[in-house]
Amino acid sequence: MGKPQVVLGVSGGIAAYKACELLRRLTESGHEVRVVPTDSALHFVGAATWSALSGNPVSTQVWDDVHEVPHVRIGQHADLVVVAPATADTLARAAHGLADDLLTNTLLTARCPVVFAPAMHTEMWEHPATQENVATLRRRGAVVIEPAVGRLTGVDTGKGRLPDPAEIFEVCRHVLARGTADPDLAGRHVVISAGGTREPLDPVRYLGNRSSGKQGYALARTAVARGARVTLIAANTGLPDPAGADVVTAGSAEQLREQVVKAAADADVVVMAAAVADFRPAAYASSKIKKKDDAEPEPLALVRNPDILAEVAAHRARPGQLVVGFGAETDDVLANGRAKLARKGCDLLVVNEVGEAKAFGTEENEAVVLGADGSETHIPYGPKEALADRVWDLVAARLA
């Protein structure tokens, strides 16, 4: 088999320079990339740069190299088309089927998956016209990544920033790996918790756990690639925001509960992948607890934290809402998992064995997914993204 054929469309926005990094990641990972910029994009990054980085000629008009019929051939031969950045104008032209340059012609002829990574000012992104165009593209099967929140052109800050190129690359990689133009989570809102909560003891100490958040982030990335609107509630992870996910931070279990309940109000799926502390200190010391000479520390009194998974499962915000839990066990994994599934009342429970250098903080994982319907699905050891995709397979089947 030859290299996967990727078309990188570049619109005329200030974020066009970031597409150079995306191009580099695509080519270095073994993809053959043809860059198709708009005329406006060339005001920000010249054709010579795109040609040098991709190793392929660069055209903007259907009249360039007309004997090769580029307005048809480029889209027909592509395995993936990604437009980054996608301006409001490009989204509008794509949604309305215009074909006034090489990029829009390519989008009309492509029968492969298409990913748009929008970048524009907040007001333009929030305008009803843009939102309708995005909804149209998503309804047709395109993956439109939600913009990031951050610094925009000039002094403006808000939603509309191009996500990190490394994270856009991850979305592209997942879409290519699935090999389908059918985003089966399109139109769905999924809420995912990730990381580990920290329960403050004093201003410098806390009770915590080893969870890195990598499995929850893998669930977020794969859900975005499958077309979902993703709210990721991150507890103490330190990981880069996945492209396309709305990220909300939380520290303690009570803060995580507040954010999960709020986000779950209009969610189709809630996935509790975070490691939530079962207990917290009964009292918080407002100043650092000092070590006393020749004296043992006072016993630490603990109280229970809210059981977020059980609460969300028992009080579903909307009919048909699916709730997925994670169960981290150190022994009697399946027996404890089945008991937890019954106790929590969720639809699916992903049970895995944890410990030092096992699941927590690693790039790989394995699990058994137990269903309330009595099903049992073993997911073999492998990348956390593979486990995440298998979980979404099970969720998508139940949503259908």
UniProtKB/TrEMBL annotation:
UniProt record similarity statement: In the C-terminal section; belongs to the PPC synthetase family. In the N-terminal section; belongs to the HFCD (homo-oligomeric flavin containing Cys decarboxylase) superfamily.
Spell out the reaction equation it catalyses. Answer: (R)-4'-phosphopantothenate + L-cysteine + CTP = N-[(R)-4-phosphopantothenoyl]-L-cysteine + CMP + diphosphate + H(+); N-[(R)-4-phosphopantothenoyl]-L-cysteine + H(+) = (R)-4'-phosphopantetheine + CO2
According to the UniProt entry, where is the signal peptide?
none
Its Enzyme Commission number(s) read: 4.1.1.36, 6.3.2.5
Q: Does the keyword Magnesium apply?
A: yes
> Which intervals of the chain are annotated as region Phosphopantothenoylcysteine decarboxylase?
1-189
Instruction: Write the gene name.
Output: coaBC
Q: In which pathway does it act?
A: Cofactor biosynthesis; coenzyme A biosynthesis; CoA from (R)-pantothenate: step 3/5; Cofactor biosynthesis; coenzyme A biosynthesis; CoA from (R)-pantothenate: step 2/5
User: What region holds the Flavoprotein domain?
Assistant: 5-171
Give one Pfam family.
Answer: Flavoprotein
Species in which this protein is naturally found: Actinacidiphila acidipaludis
Stated name of the protein: Coenzyme A biosynthesis bifunctional protein CoaBC
Q: Where does CTP bind?
A: D278, K288, P306, D307, I308, L309, F326, K340, K344
